Amino acid sequence: MKKVTEPSKLLLIYGEDAEKELFARTWRHRGKYAEQEMIRVNEGMERITEKIHGFQTVVIGNLPVEQRNLLFKYCYANQVKSYILPKISDVLLMGAVQGFRFDTPFLMFRGYALSMRQRFTKRLFDLILVIPLLVLLSPLMLLIALAVKLEDGGPVVYRQTRLTMDERKFQIYKFQSMVVDAEREGAVLAAREDGRITGVGHFLRRFRLDEILQLFNILRGEMSFVGPRPERPEMAEEYKKTMPEFSFRNHVPAGLTGYAQVYGNYDTMPYDKLKFDLFYIMHYSLWTDIKLILMTIKAIFFRKR
């Protein structure tokens, strides 16, 4: 007789309203869960632990450490599958070396940076890839430059100061995709629906063609194909006020793509993008770079609009 399995039920435990919206967007279309329910952590640990027993899977959000640890251990003790949104310290610990000393297990980790051998390999890989790409894409670049110029007669190339490894400043190159003087009132983060973007700019951004000029930044050694997206100095300073760890992402060269570009969205929070960047640094390998480049190509053409 065929065993009938009960449909899985999912409980989402959140701390802030913004996190509730994130959960709703992320898990809405997960069809394997017959029922999804959310509960806020301020409803009390007793009520939450009682509720957990009615669910097969629990997602624990970015809660205060004490509450998060209690819920995680409760799920573990009761053999309930759980997902946890990691904090930055958790991401850093993922790269720790395990060992046993002084009659106890321990974890050892250090401030991560690429070794000289890794830096050489990464740079060689960039050069092997970027030189033929510049030759192959030069006709496309000329067509894009013509389209940008014909639309509004403004400048074709957009330059902006960004940060790369060791917080060195450089001028990043992009095809102009916004109206002239789009940031005359100061730096503003781009949004999915941004009225400053031109008609040609919408097409360029859809396929990330506005960024192919950054191949010249890679050729000059200011960027790599894979790494944290280069941030503006003024935005980096703002982020550091609430996330001092933001400077950790500059332990490697800035990149054209990375985990945040593959898995994130326009509205992904800076804190979550930072976790993507740190995860990449902790687990860097040449194979990771190759895989992320291939995943980026797939995301450009097959990502849902």
Describe the structure.
With 305 residues, this protein is α/β, with parallel strands linked by helices. The protein has two domains: 8-85, Rossmann fold (3-Layer(aba) Sandwich); 116-302, no CATH class. It contains eleven helices and ten strands. The protein has helices at 17-27, 45-52, 65-77, 88-93, 116-152, 199-206, 214-219, 233-242, 259-263, 270-282, 286-302, and strands at 8-14, 33-40, 57-60, 81-84, 97-101, 104-108, 157-163, 169-175, 223-226, 254-257. The chain has a four-stranded parallel sheet, sandwiched between helices. It has a two-stranded antiparallel sheet with strand order 5-6. Helix 1 (17-27) links the parallel strand 1 and strand 2. The chain is globular and about 65 Å long. The mean pLDDT is 86.
Quick structural gist:
By secondary structure, the chain is of the alpha/beta class. It folds into 2 domains: 78 residues, Rossmann fold, CATH 3.40.50.510; 187 residues, no CATH class.
